[in-house]
Write a structure and sequence with these properties.
The chain is built from three helices and eight strands, in the order ααββββββββα. The protein has about 190 residues and is an alpha+beta fold. It has two domains: about 35 residues; about 150 residues, Immunoglobulin-like. β4 and β5 form a beta hairpin. The protein is elongated, with a radius of gyration of 25 Å. About 20% of the residues are buried.
């Protein structure tokens, strides 16, 4: 009788311990996900993908500009207008420089773009002449996808002066006379 009573209590104790362990794991996982939500979102759900720089040109002041295309994946996210977009670049000699991004010929009144494959304005300029041809640049952009939290989408590395080819699905879209949506050719 005592043995059966002991086993019954032991089983109840083990079940309660297992439930408490499970609840602790869920609480810990929720805390970690809450802490790193923005990082996880930026990594696995970026606002745009396939940023492509083509037709590089050196401006009169020595800075570089390019025609830039991207595929905005999340049309509900709004560009944060108050940000100062910059790139960090490493020159071929190894020095590090920062440059502001200047959009030439605004094609998006209100600074929000629809979803899909598109060109960013007429040209995008990186305004520091110290970034010479062959410099490697990286940047990021902020969008508001949720209340009180910005989503960061990072891009790069991009080599200044080096043409990037359009993604294969966009090339197929162009070859088919721009029929339908570029994502249909993925």
């Amino acid at each position: 009788m005592n043995d059966a009573k002991f086993r019954s209590r032991l089983n109840i104790y083990m079940i309660l311990t297992l439930c408490m362990f499970g609840a602790s794991c869920l609480f810990l996982m929720n805390s970690v996900l809450t802490m790193y939500q923005a990082d996880i979102e930026s990594r696995f759900l970026p606002v745009y993908t396939d940023r492509t720089h083509t037709e590089w040109r050196q401006e009169e002041d020595g800075s570089w500009s390019a025609i830039v295309f991207l595929n905005k994946r999340r049309s509900g996210c709004v560009y944060v207008r108050d940000q100062i977009e910059t790139v960090v670049g490493v020159t071929p000699s190894g020095t590090v420089h920062e440059a502001n991004i200047v959009y030439i010929g605004d094609r998006s009144p209100g600074s929000n773009r629809p979803g899909g494959w598109q060109q960013l304005d007429l040209r995008v300029m990186f305004d520091n002449p110290a970034l010479v041809e062959g410099s490697i640049i990286r940047g990021s952009t902020l969008h508001q996808c949720h209340a009180n939290q910005a989503t960061v989408t990072s891009w790069g590395p991009v080599v200044i002066g080096e043409e990037q080819s359009l993604p294969s699905y966009v090339q197929a879209w162009y070859e088919n006379g721009r029929e339908g949506d570029p994502d249909d050719y993925r």
